[in-house]
Amino acid sequence: MRGFKGPLVPSLHAPSKRSQIGVDWFAFFLADAQVGFGPFLTVYLTSEKWTNADIGLVLTIGSLFALVGQVPAGALVDAIGRERTLAAACTLTVGATAFSIAIWPTFYAVFLAQVFHSAASVVIGPALAAISLGLVGHNLIGERMGRNARFSSLGSMFAAASMGASGYYVSSQAVFFVSAAMTIPAVMALYLIQPSDFHREELEPKHEPEYHLLQATKTIFGKRQLLILAASVCLFHLANAAVLPLAANLITLRSSKSATVLVALCIIVPQFIVALISPWIGRYGDQHGRRPLLLLGFAALPVRAVLMSFSSDPEVMVAIQFLDGISASVLGVLVAGVVADVTQDSGNFNLALGFIGVAMGIGASISTTLAGEIALHFGTSTAFLTLAVIGFLGFLVVTLAMPETRVVEEPADE
Q: Could you tell me the fold of the domain covering 15-203?
């Protein structure tokens, strides 16, 4: 085996156009449904006279369940299989929680809805990744994940616009009826995927026919590449998660009249970049290896944080966000590709994805508190520079320790 160079070995799998379209539109409508559980939830609960403390509590509960549930969800998908059924059931659960929030905005009802929403969401992610891998195989997983990222970003942009209009012209409650409705076409899209196109052998261990959680966990922790990846993405999200909130705060202080539009653009610009380049990112990673673009994605974060620290113009800060789109495209596509490479023989793809998801979540959960404290005591520019240093450490980990994982068999000598 060697690091990948040269043309891609053709995939043995050729999923039908119908199945590919099914995954595309599932990613699109799933993103539509999930957008309502972001800032729109805070707006809705505020309109229902909730206190900031109660809103913070239910949001924190959702985040904690999402973090804790990553590894069990991955293990569940690996052990049970039936990815399409799991994805459909959990998507309908997301719809039910959105509907319940809309009609019962009481504390305990929303609390339970957040728990069920988080539990369902952490299963949908690995299920979608497993469906993608089963359809196209390891040779083309990068390109398939790139398409997922493109349609997810397009769905998020569409949802932000449609839900914003619903909230403005109807009510903030209407946002959650829209979220619930979007889960129906999402499930319909899942059933466009033809079972005959799905290759379960791509997800199963090559040498161990039965699934054993303890053995699978030992295998994951024995993979040096996964431990390096976990450390690097933890540092990345420790640096990344607080950049946009800090920038939004500065934009609001410096341009209060147009702050809402400018902050919205800070979100839309990266999503547009993700939609534009993600399939190319995946294709390049499949054909030329993951490492070159991983380095680019990790390098873009400290550069972005440094530029933010020296910027005083809100419009310039919006423009700088294109670097977030580069990082989001690379990590959103290639992290799953690296995990697929490393777990190709063990069949622990979803469990490993869950492990990496926990590392990301730990970094992100600390980031905003850390940056907020630094900004409070030393200023926002210092907070940005601190985040840049942390991001650079993540880049160094990838540069110095992360090997190329995209490998092919050496051709036999004749």
A: Growth Hormone; Chain: A; (1.20.1250)
